Amino acid sequence: MDTAQALPAGALGMRAFAKVNLHLDVLRRRHDGYHEIESVMQSVGLYDTLHLVPRPRGLSLLSDSPEVPSGAENLCLRAAHALLEAAGCEAPPRGVRIDLYKSIPVAAGFGGGSADAAATLVGLNRMWELGLDDAALHALAARLGSDVAFCLHGGTRLARGRGERLTALPALPRTWFLLLFAAIPVRAAWAYANLNMGLTRRSHALSMDQLKSILARYPGAARGFFNRLEDAVCPAHPLLSEITSRLLEGGAPVAMMSGSGGGVFAAFRSREEAEGARRDLRRSDWRMPIVPSVQSGVELFTSRSQSEPQAP
Questions:
Q1: Is the N-terminal amide bond of 289 cis, ω within 30° of 0?
Q2: How confident is the model at residue 4 (pLDDT cuts 50, 70, 90)?
Q3: 90: burial class by Cβ within 10 Å (0-12, 13-18, 19+)?
Q4: Is residue 19 annotated as part of the catalytic site, yes or no?
Q5: 62-84 CB burial, b ≥16 within 10 A, e <16
Q6: Contact status, residue 41 vs residue 19, Cβ threshold 8 Å
Q7: Ranges in the chain annotated CATH 3.30.230.10
Q8: Domain 12-168+294-306 belongs in CATH node 3.30.230.10
Q9: Would you put residue 159 in left (φ > 0), alpha (ψ -120 to 50) or beta?
Q10: Backbone phi, then psi, for 56, in 5-degree steps?
Q11: Where do you find CATH 3.30.70.890 in the chain?
């Protein structure tokens, strides 16, 4: 359910949507220490809620999650300061408190922190009337993190480079995702550091025609996709492999780790199929929301009536 409180008077609300990696190949390690990737990313209907609340002065953040840092390392605050710097502002034009209500699990591969940063860029650019265009916001997002640029735009996109070079793909057919988080947090830096490029299976980059063909027939044709980071993460966390195996054995067309983990998703043509798979797992201690594919990365709202409940 949506755990956010009522939107305060004069505040701007945002939904920051999670993502899944329908496909993730790691091509090589770059000279700057990052990895060159090729990934098909998809926005899904699980979201964090942010309120930008006017204050007399200053910039601060409050969150309902103890896992979210509140200091300078917080991605929302980093996004806010990057926005001010890009606009040539020494101080916020208007005081604001960022209230962050988390529904996307932390360190699950669903892009929660990146989504929050993207929403902060969009919301504060509007609230502070800075007038930065899409290209300027994209450049800031790319500097903040590999997934922030995607979360800024959302939908169905091919991500290359560190994840910041985006190409729009045809929208995914209506798909229902069972997202599963068994409390196995995995940090992206650890996953990439433990990926042995010499021992992983050979890269086989997909052509644009192949990508479009798989997406048009998704999830039935999804066996053409994979997540290279499973080679690093699953040996250290075998429960993730057990979960995907159980989902596939239960009839899921596809089940795989998202991003660097430790979240897993399975994709279905209908909500009923997803609900059946969730029942078959029989684990009430795991977080298992069922959500549809969406074509937005960030949505703004100015009244509580515009905020829709989370899927259970």
A1: no
A2: low
A3: exposed
A4: yes
A5: ebeeeebeeeeebbbbbbbebbb
A6: yes
A7: 12-168+294-306
A8: yes
A9: beta
A10: -60, -35
A11: 176-292
Q: What share of the chain is helix, strand, coil (3-state, %, to 5)?
A: 30, 30, 40
Instruction: Enter the tokens of residue 136.
Output: 């300027």
Query: Considering 48, 116, 147, 231, which one is annotated as catalytic?
Result: 147
Of 117, 125, 79, residue with least CA distance to 100: 117
Q: Half-sphere exposure of residue 260, counting CA atoms within 13 Å on the CB side?
A: 19
pLDDT tens for 190-245 read 999 999 876 555 556 789 999 999 999 999 999 889 999 999 999 999 999 999 99
Written as six digits, the tokens of 95 are: 């005081």
Q: Which residues contact 92 (CB under 8 A, 6 or more apart)?
A: 57, 58, 59, 80, 84, 128
DSSP three-state, residue 37:
strand
Contacts of 301 (CB under 8 A, 6+ apart): 7, 13, 14, 15, 307
Given 19, 25, 48, 99, the catalytic residue: 19
User: How many other CB atoms are there within 10 angstroms of residue 274's CB atom?
Assistant: 25
Q: Which residues pair with 35 in a beta bridge?
A: 29
The answer, as to whether pTM is greater than 0.85, is: yes
- Is pLDDT of 139 > 50? yes
Q: Does domain 176-292 have CATH number 3.30.70.890?
A: yes
Strand, coil or helix: what is 60?
Answer: strand
Q: Which helix (H) or strand (E) holds 150?
A: helix 148-153
